[in-house]
Amino acid sequence: MNNTLSFEDWIRAHGQRTESALENLLDAANTNPARLHEAMRYAAQGGGKRIRPLLVYAAGELGDEPNEVKQVALDAAAVAIECIHAYSLVHDDLPCMDDDDLRRGRPTVHKAYDEATALLVGDALQTRAFEVLANAPCDADIRLAMIGALASASGSRGMAGGQAIDLDSVGKKLDLAGLKQMHAMKTGALLCCSVQMGGIAAKLNSAQMQHLQNYAQALGLAFQIVDDVLDATADSQTLGKTAGKDAANDKPTYVTLMGLDYAKKAAKDLQETAIASLESFGPKAQALKDLALLVVNRGK
Of 187, 199, 192, nearest to 85 (Cα)? Predict the structure, then answer.
């Protein structure tokens, strides 16, 4: 992080950078078929914390001094990860999945449009993510590594697999190990991929990438635990989505399994583990450290 910027300024600058990159790399809303492209933009540009793109940019600061090639690679990675995340939310909200009417304080895509359009929006955002990476004007080995990372994180051994476990666990009793595995796949995989792609663009070595992996695994689990806590304690207006859905759907969470106090302490411990994993990077990792604090302290 630029030492002349406060973290708030860094967040603001890179949030704006993410929005600009999405504006530039998504098809225009009037592209034929217009209803589909308009709905894609509705899903991807509808706000949110943009934690995953911010992690991409923060990890990208760990390498050498900025250059134009690295910056375009980071922009492509930020848009790609946000497209995958948006697609997952669109499908997650469908009646056949979590059946939710509210996302980011607005009607979900299937409510604002219709179910068939929402299904196609998710499909199209997923493929757009890989198209953006494939067309990024950077070295071919960087493009290929980022494509491989994103495919692995979003597929059956990553996010989609975690979602399958989540759906299969409704009304059942998971033990702590099973809950950790589900969260590592459903939520943690994309967070890990975010920092991994940032590290790829920064051309980090294998030892540095392992430190990043340790950070991201702890952060990913902390992120989901905080989500569980907020679902149990916050209201819908604060969350921007329907509160209490997990309990209503009889889903296993850290709160239902281990209790609220345990969940809060676990998130704090994981935050400390994540930050400690970055020690070897020195001041360059400040944005990543601040993001770990932001993730665990949100809602407070």
Answer: 187
Beta strands in the chain (DSSP E): 102-103, 106-107
Measured distance CA(180)–CA(175) in Å, rounded: 9
Tokens, residue 13: 């600058």
Q: Which domain holds residue 260?
A: 7-297
User: 39: domain CATH number?
Assistant: 1.10.600.10
Rounded to whole angstroms, the maximal C-alpha distance in the chain is: 51
pTM exceeds 0.85, yes or no: yes
- Which residues, in sequence order, are bridge partners of residue 195? none
Q: Of 248, 216, 219, 218, give the one whose Cα is nearest residue 231.
A: 248
Residue 49 lies in a domain: yes
Residue type, 90: V
Under the banding of pLDDT at 50, 70 and 90, the label for residue 47 is confident
Distance CA 162, CA 266 (A): 20
Contact 175/256 with Cβ under 8 angstroms? no
Whether the Cβ atoms of residue 179 and residue 200 lie closer than 8 Å to each other: no
Q: Which residues contact 87 (CB under 8 A, 6 or more apart)?
A: 43, 121, 122, 123, 125, 126, 129
Structural domains counted in the chain = 1
Query: Which class for 244: exposed (0-12), middle (13-18), buried (19 or more C-beta within 10 A)?
Result: middle
CA distance 242 to 153: 26
